[in-house]
From TrEMBL, chains A, B, C:
This is Microsomal glutathione S-transferase 1. It is an enzyme of class 2 (transferase). It is found in: Endoplasmic reticulum membrane; Mitochondrion outer membrane. Coiled coil: none annotated. InterPro entries: MAPEG-like_dom_sf, Membr-assoc_MAPEG, MGST1-like. Conjugation of reduced glutathione to a wide number of exogenous and endogenous hydrophobic electrophiles. Its main location: endoplasmic reticulum.
Length: 155, 155, 155
């Protein structure tokens, strides 16, 4: 098997890999948070999920929505909407040879902003806590996109 | 144009590319499944989509939700939530030089788990079929993330 | 720090990076469109978001759904569902050494189709405008997936 020495010795790429793995693991945690609230609050979306709580009409009462569960789902979707652009743009940015300290600043701000966004959404903290967290993460991705498009473009 | 011989001769990367392409194609199939159920059951989310079925008030009755359509949409969203982390973490894992047989085991389990998850969701099969499929896919991604973070980290 | 000369001199990869950055930035614009409609129409999903508009019962009346906001959210989710496969399959396709002009045709069609899809969804234009835009983008991704799987496969 052929090794890829350049990528493994490229500090920016290793940093991107580390931060991406952490931020994606954080996003995956939202699935277990949803499952946890569904179980403890007995709130389900599918009849087969609450079959063990009763038969027929008795089980149907668990097919409902719940503020807490919907809140976690919105936080999860917001993660998806923001982490997907970070993933794509961040990968290309990492491969475009940016300055290590600049790249680390971007990655750290993004990870911090997304973690704070989740805390602000689930607690919930009063606004503009969540809005600020959102815009910091958004700004980081826009800044990387700008640096990519300014740098080299082929349309 | 410059060729990228290392990547094309890297078995793990070619395997990752093959499995990712298949799992993403499977996910795209969910869009056509949603469209199929919307058409056959005449269940639409936008007024312009059912304009051909009647004018004015007559068309509005098709603007509704349907258990079957919502089920496909939940399965699709669950795919997105799980395939995005697999995509990001799996790509970095493939580039980190893992053992070929270990990598293949991860990719095969993930693909199998996601296909079984869709079957269990759409049939629907009784629980814990879907839950097990979900946790196998989840476990594969966590295992790759752990291997990445243990291997080399730059924070 | 080690540079990655091959990738930066690979025209297909630079083209992929350019188009991906633009299409992801377009997708991120949907978040601000949602926020804009939520603000101007005073339609919120979380109590803390409309706390500044009144206290207690007075604020609760802003916790509602709105056709316009739901439309932008559906367009955003459709973007996610289609851009994620493009991101994964397109990256692998770019690294598989395709012909530059073929690759550019794929990327341009996809970007044009997704921009037209958003315009058709938000205006809204009568069908089949949106459906056609969807299928062009879908076809581009399927074509790249087919080219990848035909080319080299390791299962």
């Amino acid at each position: 098997m052929i090794d890829l020495p350049q990528l493994k010795e490229n500090d920016v790429f290793v940093a991107f890999a580390s931060y991406t793995t952490i931020v994606l693991s954080k996003m995956m945690f939202m699935s277990t948070a949803t499952a946890f609230y569904r179980m403890t609050r007995k709130v389900f979306a599918n009849p087969e999920d609450c079959a063990s709580f009763g038969k027929g009409e008795n089980a149907k009462k668990f097919l409902r929505t719940d503020d807490r569960v919907e809140r976690v789902r919105r936080a999860h979707l917001n993660d998806l909407e923001n982490i997907v652009p970070f993933l794509g743009i961040g990968l290309l940015y990492s491969l475009s040879g940016p300055d290590l300290s600049t790249a680390l600043l971007h990655f750290r701000l993004f990870l911090g902003a997304r973690i704070y966004h989740t805390i602000a959404y689930l607690t919930p903290l009063p606004q503009p806590n969540r809005a600020l967290a959102f815009f910091v993460g958004y700004g980081v991705t826009i800044s990387m996109a700008y640096s990519l498009l300014k740098n080299k473009l082929y349309l």
